[in-house]
Amino acid sequence: MASRVQLVLTALVFVVSAPLSCLAQHDENCKLTQDVPAKPDPSLMQCYKFNTLSCCVSGHDSTILGVYSETLSASCLREYPLLEHFFCFGCHPEQPTFTLSNVAEPEIRVCQSLADALFELDLERCGISIGIANSLMNASNPAPDWEIGFHEPSDERQVIIPKKVFKDSETFLNAIKPPYFENYKVVIVPDDGECFSPAGRVISRFFASVLAVFVCLQASSSFSF
Question: Does residue 122 belong to any structural domain of this protein?
């Protein structure tokens, strides 16, 4: 027990003594509430997995449900729990850890495992309805002649089969960004970093922050043993 306490205290001193430039690696508060995560009351209906602790409230949850309901047909709404998880990003209590907002191009950091799993979903059975113009689809997609439901401009919705339109998970996820994060860029990163994952973080935020500070200090050559 003593050694564990000593480890925590050492890590705390390490973080507190680090330069500010190395501490601002992610957002501080939830984007949707501008506050720390809290238990939602009333409970969430769509993003119910975050009813214990959430970065959103009932009104946000209702909006997320509306957007998700437009994306899939009624018979397919509960067919893809992982896609629901992605759309509920704004309610995830760790959302501030996975976003960087105060930059020219805000980012959502998504783990490679989640990105791959979403791209591999069997969406051929249902299709998804999104606002995208054929001219904006990736030029090197598997089906460059895709014209079913052709629409211009890009704010018109059309039903597509993702693997026939997008060449990889990154182009796909940037076309179906979670509600409230439409102006963010989805960046796919290795699973060993701070990123939005299929099952959430198993590493404590505190020690993940310690690791981030250490990497920053090493990169800036301002830390020495």
Answer: yes
Q: Take residue 142 and report the two structure tokens written for it.
A: 């598997």
Helix (H, G, I), strand (E, B) or coil at 98: helix
Domain assignment present for 13: no
Percent of the chain with pLDDT over 90: 54
pLDDT digits (tens, 9 = 90+) for 118-145: 999 999 999 999 877 665 565 555 555 5
Distance CA 147, CA 60 (A): 34
Q: Which candidate, 83, 51, 50, places its Cα nearest to that of 68?
A: 83
| Whether 115 contacts 92, CB under 8 Å | no
Contact 39, 52 (CB under 8 A): yes
Tally the domains of the chain: 1
Nearest to 180 by CA among 131, 116, 108: 108
* Cβ atoms of residues 220 and 26 within 8 Å: no
Taking a C-beta distance cutoff of 8 angstroms, is the pair 92, 80 a contact? no
Task: Write out the two tokens for 179.
Answer: 């509600």
